[in-house]
Specification:
seven-stranded mixed β-sheet; globular; 18% strand; binds 4'-deoxy-4'-aminopyridoxal-5'-phosphate
Length: 362
């Protein structure tokens, strides 16, 4: 089998395409069906029960528009996040993807620098390019922390810090994040899509400084990736600009109800799944290391392994019924593969696949 790269190159050109879009590829990671799919860092235990019930009951709601800016959901998110966050400090969107895209589009001009640590979540970089910004990749420090001096020197209008970072799984240190915020004058976006699994947050910084935006999602710990709900936390004046760029009605009626139900009734379910994910991550990392692979020290719901041949290993595991994500030739890492941490029975199938592949290559 062949494994398509995470971002495919378009070979057909369209005459009316915007200049900044011409070289932007369509994001098309491999989605070929596979028995155990560990490719997208979602909640492999499924949908939380109250959210599932509300979705089944909500058919009548979809004949009308949803609420304009999801105030009910913002109130629940404010309670969940704590730290004194108010609904006025929250923007919600069609996934945190939309919040990221709207923030970049709404706050930066074409030609401005989009500064990020490389490698990171590729869509964030693509949203920068779509808005006409110039991407400025900065290497990670030796311990997989971000390099605050190099980031501040790059003069970003937007500085993107993914913590824990996708695909490395390692969070940025508090000291480095604070240094970036202090020593730069652009918008600092801290992407906390995986924060629940790390147990640390920069939400307090977003409340103290109007150049800091923290983004979060319901797609990972909350098991609602298919509904597409994410949010950003920042100063009310910043949030208003992002909401203008976002526009009305982008969180649909089912998604808003299910996310409210999850925050109201499913928090225990979510916390139990997060605890199980963290326990399985620790156990899986030990077992993988025993096999002779080199896993990075993840604080997320996925693990990145440095390997000799990412595409070859992914293809072999695919044939054994397990889908993982190949990363050929990552900067500073070389070939690596990423796998979602889920229920232990799935992890056992993954481990036996890795063992088979490893023995074949010895
Ligand atoms: N940020 C990071 C770091 C991610 O890995 C992802 C999804 N893979 C997202 C944001 C987007 O998540 P969503 O749009 O589903 O909220």
């Amino acid at each position: 089998m062949t494994v398509s790269s995470a971002v495919q190159n378009a070979d057909e050109r369209y005459a009316l395409a915007r200049a900044a879009y011409r070289e932007i590829p369509l994001y098309t990671p491999d989605k070929t069906p596979v028995a155990i799919d560990l490719r997208d860092n979602t909640n492999l235990w499924g949908v939380p029960p109250a959210a599932a019930r509300v979705i089944a009951d909500a058919a009548r709601a979809v004949a009308r528009y949803p609420t304009l800016y999801s105030m009910d959901l913002k109130r629940r998110i404010a309670e969940y996040v704590g730290h004194g966050v108010t609904p006025e400090s929250i923007v919600v969107g069609c996934g945190s993807d939309e919040v990221l895209g709207s923030a970049i589009r709404g706050l930066a001009e074409p030609g401005d620098h989009f500064v990020y640590s490389d490698p990171t979540f590729p869509m964030a970089v693509l949203y920068g390019r779509m808005a006409g910004l110039t991407p400025v990749p900065i290497p990670f420090a030796a311990d997989w922390d971000i390099d605050p001096d190099a980031i501040s020197a790059a003069r970003g209008r937007v500085i993107y810090v993914c913590s824990p970072n996708n695909p490395t799984g390692v969070p940025a240190s508090r000291a480095s994040i604070e240094a970036v915020v202090t020593n730069s004058d652009g918008l600092v976006i801290i992407d906390e899509a995986y924060a629940e699994f790390a147990g640390v947050t920069s939400v307090d910084l977003a409340l103290e400084n109007d150049r800091v935006l923290v983004t979060r999602t319901f797609s990972k710990a909350f098991g609602l990736a298919g509904l597409r709900v994410g949010y950003g936390i920042g100063a009310p004046a910043l949030i208003r600009e992002i909401e203008k760029a976002r526009g009305p009605y982008t969180v649909n009626a089912l998604a808003e109800r299910a996310a409210v139900a999850a925050l109201t009734e499913d928090l225990e379910w979510v916390r139990e799944r997060v605890a199980e994910t963290v326990a399985n991550r620790v156990r899986l990392r030990e077992k993988i290391a025993e096999l002779g692979f080199a896993p990075l020290p993840s604080e997320s719901n996925f693990i990145l392994l440095v390997v000799r041949d990412a595409v070859g290993l992914t293809g072999r595991l695919f044939d054994l019924g397990v889908g993982i994500r190949p990363y050929p030739k990552l900067p500073r890492i070389g070939d690596a593969v990423r796998m979602t941490v889920g229920p232990w029975s799935m992890m056992q199938t993954l481990l036996s696949g890795l063992r088979t592949a490893h023995n074949e290559w010895l």
